[in-house]
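Ferredoxin
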Amino acid sequence: MHIEIDKDVCIGAGQCALTAPGVFTQDDDGYSTLIPGHEDGARDPMVREAARACPVSAIKVTEPAG
């Protein structure tokens, strides 16, 4: 799975970090970022729920083609 955060859209609500804290965190400015080493999010079943919880839809989760 591929996770993309649109930094231009993110408002730093933190819902992703609350929903899937093993994958998402917030940077020093309060915006969402992926925890290093967890960029694919494949091991966390809450990644898609975290994307849905984003109030501005800044997170996109896609499956790689193939």
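thats it. Residues 2-57 form a domain with the Alpha-Beta Plaits fold (CATH 3.30.70.20). The mean pLDDT is 90. bye
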